[in-house]
Amino acid sequence: MATKDDRLFLITGATGTTGSETVRLLLEHGHRVRAFVHREDDRSRALTAAGAEVVVGDLLDFHDVSAAMRGISGAYFCYPIAPGLLDATVIFAQAATEAGVRSVVNMSQISARREAVSNAARQHWLSERLLDRTPLLTAHLRPTFFAEWISWWWGRQGDEGILRLPLGNGRHAPVAGIDQAYVITAVLENPEPHDRQIYTLHGPEEMDHHGIAEAMSRALGIPVTYEPISVDEFAQGLTSLGKTAHLVQHLSNVAIDYQNGVFQGTNNLIEVIGNRSPLSVKEFVSERREAFARSGSHFVPAAKGD
Fold first, then answer.
1. 0.85 surpassed by pTM
2. How many degrees, rounded to 5, is the angle at CA 92 between CA 88 and CA 93?
3. What distances in angstroms separate CA 76 from CA 42, 118, 130, one per listed residue?
4. Which of 155, 154, 150 is nearest to 177 (CA)?
5. 135, 164, 179, 194: most buried by Cβ count inside 10 Å?
6. Cα-based angle 133, 139, 141 (whole degrees, multiple of 5)
7. What is d(CA 2, CA 150) in angstroms, rounded to the nearest whole number?
């Protein structure tokens, strides 16, 4: 039930997988929300219709971010897999500190660590350390691969589906964006117990991609298979789809991390912090069947002649 609350929360990446759900939850809880978006479109207009204050800006523009921070109590920082993360973190941290923002929830990733070969993953680790040096109450989220990953990399071939990925027999527990939003919302609402904490977020069941394909098949009622491919073929395929060198370098290296067990594990943090039972793969796919009517935007088809 919504209750009156005078706090104003800033949500960056507000039209994204976790941001949009966090905006919705905060509004449902009676909070005021400022949604920071990169451009105006149907998604941003939907946030306005829901009751959010939408501001258009660039996380790499100090003046845009500073203006968005005015009057903010707590903020969610979410930067895409793109160049500029360290600059954006510095801008965000300085603007939030100047504005007297009290807390931040930082979206990192499970592969963030000092020794990461992925440039993006290593930069996430550095961004965490930078935010830890501010006066902000800071919590870092390190999710494993999102459940949404399945629809992005899925290939639809008539009445059959396929996952062509360089992940070998590695395992993880896919975690849905909506489940992460419950954690983000809870931490924003009550930041003190979570200060300087790093939370890895997982779905309910650890699986390899053969198991994921089987769960998808049960949900969709069609055969779905997993076809392991090499990292080189994966990288070449992404490049041919027009994906950026930054993204290709990141995904190629986290694929190796995945095979080495970096993404595996389970825990109950979504239940304990978010007060929600996370979606299984079967539940996630069943609720989003329309997303599987066609191939995903990142699907890497087999090269002609293979």
1. yes
2. 120
3. 22, 23, 15
4. 150
5. 179
6. 120
7. 33
CA distance 58 to 132: 23
CB 55 within 8 A of CB 35: yes
- Closest by CA to 203, choosing from 260, 143, 259, is 143
Q: Which amino acid is at 267?
A: N
- pLDDT digit string, tens, across residues 44-102: 999 999 999 999 999 999 999 999 999 999 999 999 999 999 999 999 999 999 999 99
Task: State both tokens at 210.
Answer: 């053969």
pLDDT at 24 over 50: yes
Name residue, tokens 């396929």: 162
Q: What is the 3-state secondary structure (H, E, C) of the chain?
A: CCCCCCCEEEEECCCCCCHHHHHHHHHHCCCEEEEEECCCCHHHHHHHHHCCEEEECCCCCHHHHHHHHCCCCEEEECCCCCCCHHHHHHHHHHHHHHHCCCEEEEECCCCCCCCCCCHHHHHHHHHHHHHHCCCCEEEEEEECCECHHHHHHEEEECCEEEEEECCCCCCECCECHHHHHHHHHHHHHCCHHHCCEEEEECCCCCECHHHHHHHHHHHHCCCEEEEECCHHHHHHHHHHCCCCHHHHHHHHHHHHHHHCCCCCCCCCHHHHHHCCCCCCHHHHHHHCHHHHCCCCCCCCCCCCCC
CA distance 50 to 35: 11
